[in-house]
Amino acid sequence: MKILTFQDKNDLGIAAAKEGAAAIKKAINENGEATIVVATGASQFEMLNQLVEEDVDWSRVTAFHMDEYVGLPITHKASFRKYLQERILDQLPAFKHLEFVCGDVDDVKGEVERLNQLLDGKHIDVCFGGIGENCHLAFNDPPADFDIKSSYHVVELDEACRQQQMGEGWFRALDDVPTKAISMTIHRIMTCDTVIICAPDDRKADAAKHAIEGPITANYPASILQRHQNTSFYLDAGSSSLLGK
Questions:
Q1: CA-to-CA distance for 109 and 100, rounded, in angstroms?
Q2: Among 2, 14, 69, 104, which is least packed, fewest CB within 10 Å?
């Protein structure tokens, strides 16, 4: 695990995007294509702003996204499909394909099965992610299940997670935040060749400390990344403030 600390989130995002772009280009050079996983939320703003500016042949890149709320339409400002449409697809017309997780379908179980058929067993070159204030990875809130082998599953969102979504301004009230989501599993994230975690801000300091320095435990799901062979944690002055203490 590499720990990289920057004074501000803009520098953090630029550096993370450049590492990710290099890994994508390496995969394209070696295999003719690349498959990536992209996350959403406030932690990814600066990284995605830079990533779409990188000199990558996006016509050779397929993306899956980490998670989506159950029952939330794509028109809602908190929709992760809306987020990725605006920040990736609208910026990169040549992008080969971004496979959306559709959480507002009538048959959620069927949607999970569809996604698993597409992604189970498929090689993933780069995973861009973040961690929650409760140390979740994707929407795998504590205590997370490290053993599910499929790519996606339905999860219950805990109150800390839902409070974070409201606090970031995606929802007006806690009752508006969905209680379930379709999430990529911990196991599937761990199979990605490269994992790049952007975790800026003071409010992520406790989670970062547990993820990086604490014991590996389902109660702090991102701590499992200590076992990954090629993970980079990008932190700023705030989120790194508890490391070593």
A1: 15
A2: 2
**Structural domain boundaries, residue 30:** 2-212
Is the pLDDT confidence value at 167 over 90? Answer: no
Query: What CATH number did the domain enclosing 157 receive?
Result: 3.40.50.1360
Residue 168: what pLDDT? 86
Q: Is 150 helix (H, G, I), strand (E, B) or coil?
A: coil
Cα three-residue angle 228-229-235, rounded to 5 degrees: 70
Q: Which tokens belong to 168? A: 């970031």
**228 within a domain of the structure (yes/no):** no
Closest CA to 151 of 194, 99, 115: 115
Q: How many helices (H) and strands (E) does the chain have?
A: 7, 10
pTM of the model: 0.95
Whether the CA torsion 127, 131, 132, 135 is positive or negative: it is: positive
In a domain, 217, yes or no: no
